[in-house]
Amino acid sequence: MAAIVIQSIIISTLLYFFLSLLIKSPIGCEAENILYTNEALNNGDSLQYDSYKFKMQKDCNLVLSDAAIWASNTDEKGENCYCRMQSDGNLVIYEPGEPDRAIWATNTCRDSGNYALILQDGNLVIYGSSIWATGTTAQNGAITWLGVIGSDGPKGSICTR
Question: pLDDT tens digits, residue range 79-101?
Fold first, then answer.
């Protein structure tokens, strides 16, 4: 069981390492097409890859364009908005205020970790940390349940669609 937790940590670390290499590589991604955990696109900021642009517009609409490709359809829903890649893997548009008000989200919440929104060939993709673990760890030769939020302990289940 501890091997699964260690494997998840190793995978997350390797992902972060390889993404950082891509930024420095002239052959790979440019830094201008990646939004990392806790980074934001403020009013007027954008990511760019080739002719594609992902922009936080002044009217609070988040738009992917070469020609019109995709939009959050949040225009006129706030003022001076920004979008943030959160540490839970969720990309959220906020209107500043006391407190800031969320007006749109990708609803991709996962465990806390390192995530990256990458603009690649006209497609936006969120990459990141492990999305599931048993929540157990070996301590002094015994397996310890860490108490994952929303769960009452280790048990099996089958996903159905």
Answer: 999 999 999 999 999 999 999 99
CA atoms within 13 A on the CB side of 100: 13
Three-state SS letters, 82-131: EEEECCCCCEEEEECCCCCEEEEECCCCCCCCCEEEEEECCEEEEEECCC
CA-to-CA dists, residue 131 to 8, 14, 57, 108, 150, angstroms: 9, 15, 31, 10, 14
62-81: average pLDDT: 91
3-state DSSP: the chain helix, strand, coil percent, rounded to 5?
A: 15, 35, 50
Q: Tens of pLDDT along 10-52?
A: 665 555 555 554 444 334 444 699 999 999 999 999 999 999 9
**Residue 120 to residues 29, 50, 51, 61, 137: CA-CA distances in angstroms?**
8, 9, 11, 20, 37
Find the angle CA(105)-CA(108)-CA(110) to the nearest 5 degrees. 130
In this structure, the dihedral spanned by the alpha carbons of residues 45, 91, 80 and 57, taken in order and rounded to 10 degrees, is 50
CA atoms of 140 and 158, how far apart (whole Å): 31
d(CA 34, CA 117): 6
